[in-house]
Amino acid sequence: MVSTAFFTTALSAFALACVAQVQAQDVANTTIAAFEAASLEKAGFLGCSTAPRKAGDRRKDKSQLKYATYNVEFLFLQGLGRLSCPGSDCPWKNVDMAKKHIKQIAANLHQLDADIFQLNEVEDCNVLNALVRELHALGDDTYKPYLVKGTDSTTGQNSALLTRVDPSVDLQRSDATVDVPVANSKCPSSPDDTLSTEAGKSLSKHFYTTFNVAGFSKPITVVGTHLLAHPQDNRRCVEREGQATIVAQIAQDALDQGNHVIISGDMNDFSEDVPDRNNNMPISNVLGIMTGTSFINVGEKVPQASRYTEWWDKNKDCVYELTEVTFYAIVRYAQ
């Protein structure tokens, strides 16, 4: 019998971002030309979606499987999307700052010590390899990176894995699309009592794969995703519900095959049934769609007072306050 532990984290990265923004004032006058000279020579996108022929298991304790999801906030080195990052469009104004961020994320991961990390806001496998090197410097050489390129060309962000247990199949993506609003939408109507409609919405940042982990009676399918931001925006509400519908279908297909299933990531929304520390309420049915009747939100296993994963510095004073925390990073599990 293998126990399974789930936890989520995002606070360290957001705290680091705030510090970085303060530090960035020291480099605010750096010219674009100087930045370009200091930046990496762009090597292009590097993927690492292929599962090994023989999956390894490098867990320190094979009596348990510890799983975590972590938004690592623009874990970038090159700036392969349309945004300037490192640069003016993210907290890391130059490559040195980006490298310091990678080092801090490695320290956080080392402390958390999960067997499988599902990461979000990752550029590519070049930066994941840099993260692995930092972990090796901390004395841990048990992790391998996996990432399949998404379709978010604006930010260049992707969802990824850093894991001690290798997947048994390559990382995959779904090309499915949905028309919005979906049938079970809870998004607010516009003033004329209608919802904006749009056909063929897809899911830009996600992957799914399957693990065969010793001690489990069935394979474990993992669906990692990062949904559209701004949980109180009416238009994005219907789009995010569409994305959630695609996630739910991927998960249900794996469940129908007899697998255990984990859905994790940055959902950018709130739960009506499992409220966070500050009782933030959704305007959407995003988490309801993904939970359905087959899944549980593991946030319910955490006392409400401790139920938060994200700090949004609403007044931009760089002062951490518990009234500014929310529960965005969700793990959903079905046996």
TrEMBL record:
InterPro entries: Endo/exonu/phosph_ase_sf
Acetylation found in the keyword field: no
Protein name: Endonuclease/exonuclease/phosphatase domain-containing protein
Signal peptide range in chain numbering: 1-24
Record-linked Gene3D superfamilies: Endonuclease/exonuclease/phosphatase (3.60.10.10)
Keywords: Signal
Highest taxon, organism lineage: Eukaryota
Organism: Lagenidium giganteum
